[in-house]
Amino acid sequence: MSTIADNIAQVRSRIRAAEQAAQRTGQSVHLLAVSKTKPAQALREAYAAGVRDFGENYLQEALGKQAELTDLPLIWHFIGPIQSNKTRAIAEHFDWVHSVDRLKIAQRLSEQRPAGLPPLNICIQVNVSGEASKSGCTPADLPALAAAIGALPNLKLRGLMAIPEPTEDRAAQDAAFAAVQRLQASLDLPLDTLSMGMSHDLESAIAQGATWVRIGTALFGARDYSAG
Ligand SMILES: *Cc1c(COP(=O)(O)O)cnc(C)c1O
């Protein structure tokens, strides 16, 4: 069985190889370790292997791990669907939110971001797979949403996030990620972030301009939801 440290080394070399294949300079792609369903000890092991950024989908689970890991200087990214009644805790306990897809949520995050903390980094989740996915704003709604979020005081709009319909077909992966990159470029805003690519499609995402890849399974192994 491979350890988390071995897995991290393997993923880092996949990222490097994809950067080189795309003729992108080294270090332009950041690794977000997606630790949902995994215990705090797994995050400690990843930290020991140099990982600082962790992505969580479920608020209560994330808050529990944060309380166990206060001794480590971790950077927390919220990447799951957001209900209105969760925004205050997210605004208080995270550094990034990748999954904003409507203005009401962004307004609440801005209002509820505590004074004294830096602006909350935001990615707008965009749905480039149409009916296949319910999360994410439509490409048609994106320009107005981005302009409105960009004007909120306690948020820093960084870019876009997408989860295309899963496929092993490289051409289909490339087409979906390229569409996200085009949408980003079509916005007349100073954005520096494309959060796209997971364990099975990070090579395609990096070829199409990803700056964050969100990797769970390839680092921590398969998730077991039955354990609760
Ligand atoms: C679970 C999850 C990931 C990680 O997926 P893997 O296939 O395990 O790498 C990435 N992004 C989001 C939004 C997720 O929910």
UniProtKB/TrEMBL annotation:
Protein name, per record: Pyridoxal phosphate homeostasis protein
InterPro entries referenced in this protein's UniProt entry, alphabetically: Ala_racemase_N, PLP-binding_barrel, PyrdxlP_homeostasis
Assigned keywords, A-Z: Pyridoxal phosphate
Record family assignment: Belongs to the pyridoxal phosphate-binding protein YggS/PROSC family.
HAMAP family reported for this sequence: PLP_homeostasis
The protein's role, per its UniProt record: Pyridoxal 5'-phosphate (PLP)-binding protein, which is involved in PLP homeostasis.
Sequence positions bearing N6-(pyridoxal phosphate)lysine: 36
Segments forming domain Alanine racemase N-terminal: 10-223
